[in-house]
Design a protein that fits this description.
426 residues, alpha+beta, Immunoglobulin-like, 6-stranded antiparallel sheet, 5-stranded antiparallel sheet, 4 helices
Length: 426
């Protein structure tokens, strides 16, 4: 006889229904979470599809885009990142750059000094002294009126240094901005002590001068628009004066008027006198020219001359700077052997325009002038080049400086070698 199972009790059914109701939210949440999840990445979806599927919309309705990875060229990977230098490497590189600059500067100093001192100071190429190629004969232009440049003054003086009974000429002309001559009248000209040289003392009386344009008193060409004045200090009011003299004057051109001046340095009694006699000799591979000088006042004499080649082309500037006693003396000019060989002038050579002064240790002016020997003073004999030496000039001072510059080069090179790790570097 079958026995039927008893029906569940009402309490048991109630507890089972509550447990099932608790599972419903969890199941619904799982379905919602799965529906909003992203698609698997490329690695996860490999083999399923070659094209990524678009993502599903989120609960907010905003679309999510999928960015495809940039293709990589076959056989090439991404460019490697540049290796960063350490602080120590950067400091080493900066130090190397600094010593490279020092080495370049040291080499330049050495080479420049060696080249610049291969001849002695008293025997130099004339091109190094372009302002000394000719005797000083200054020329200048300036506006006649301060507030207008319509009329320009053309001013020239024959010389700056005047000694003894020497005469100096001054030239004045007028021109427009196109350099066309204009009428020019010079008035109220006078010679007097320069104001800056008075030193609080009463000036000597001014001496009137006249400018002419009639072909006299040193005027080159009559009625050419250039007026000329002739001045001889020893005979025109300044026989005992020593120092700077000024020639001041007024100029009128049409309705324009203005003023100007010239300055000269004057010595009434030269301390020595050139005899004009010159002897020459080749000594120690150089050409020596000995110029006679009768010295009245002992002291340091500074003398200079110019040397031209056979065709009259300026070649060398020679100078003398030594103490001389009173009496018959000689000024020694050296035309250096290597200078002759390097410049190759055509013989015979010509000495010209010799000027000089006695240097004074104190006082104003600081010199007493000698009478200048203008024009050619002496013409040398002809010499074969074999009698001249190609050796550079040497002196204790030059050797000392060359050694110093050489040490600077060595030091810079050694520092660079050490930074580069070269063998033999300290």
């Amino acid at each position: 006889m079958a026995v039927n199972s008893p029906a569940p009790a009402p309490a048991s059914r109630s507890r089972r229904a509550l447990w099932l109701l608790a599972l419903v939210p969890l199941m619904l949440g799982g379905l919602w979470w799965g529906g909003g999840a992203e698609e698997p990445g490329p690695d996860e979806a490999a083999g399923a599809s070659s094209t990524p599927a678009p993502s599903r919309s989120s609960g907010s309705g905003a679309a999510k885009s999928v960015v495809a990875a940039a293709p990589v060229a076959p056989g090439k990977g991404p460019a490697p990142a540049a290796p960063s230098r350490s602080r120590e490497e950067e400091e080493r590189e900066a130090k190397r750059a600094l010593w490279e600059k020092r080495l370049e500067r040291a080499k330049f100093s050495l080479e420049s000094y060696v080249a610049g001192t291969r001849y002695p100071p008293e025997s130099r190429p004339i091109r190094e002294h372009p302002d000394q190629e000719q005797l000083a004969s200054p020329e200048r232009t300036q506006p006649l009126e301060r507030d207008s440049s319509d009329v320009q003054l053309k001013l020239k003086q024959e010389k700056v240094f005047v000694a003894g009974d020497e005469v100096v000429h001054f030239y004045v002309g007028c021109e427009n901005v196109s350099r066309q001559p204009l009428p020019c009248q010079v008035t109220n000209a006078s010679a007097h002590e320069a104001e800056h040289a008075l030193g609080g003392q009463a000036p000597l009386a001014a001496v009137p001068l006249s400018f002419v344009d009639d072909g006299t008193q040193g005027d080159v060409l009559a009625r050419d628009g250039t007026s000329t004045a002739s001045f001889q200090p020893s005979k025109q009011g300044f026989p005992m004066f020593s120092g700077t003299l000024r020639v001041s004057f007024q100029v009128r051109s049409g309705s324009a008027e203005g003023s100007a001046f010239f300055d000269i340095l004057y010595t009434p009694a030269p301390p020595a006198r050139f005899t004009g006699k010159v002897r020459e000799a080749v000594e120690h591979g150089s050409l020596h020219l000995y110029l006679g000088l009768q010295v009245r006042t002992a002291g340091r004499y500074v003398v200079a001359g110019r040397v031209d080649d056979e065709a009259g082309m300026p070649f060398a500037y020679v100078s003398f700077n030594e103490e001389l006693p009173a009496g018959a003396q000689e000024v020694e000019f050296v035309v250096f052997g290597k200078l002759i060989l390097d410049e190759a002038p055509t013989f015979p050579l010509k000495l010209r325009d010799v000027e000089g002064f006695l240097l004074k240790e104190r006082g104003d002016p600081d010199r007493e002038l000698l009478n200048t020997l203008q024009g050619y003073v002496h013409t040398t004999r002809e010499y074969p080049t074999t009698v001249f030496s190609a050796e550079e000039w040497q002196s204790e001072e030059r050797s000392r400086y060359i050694n110093r510059f050489t040490e600077d080069v060595k030091e810079a090179q050694q520092e660079l070698d050490a930074l580069a790790g070269r063998p033999g570097s300290p």
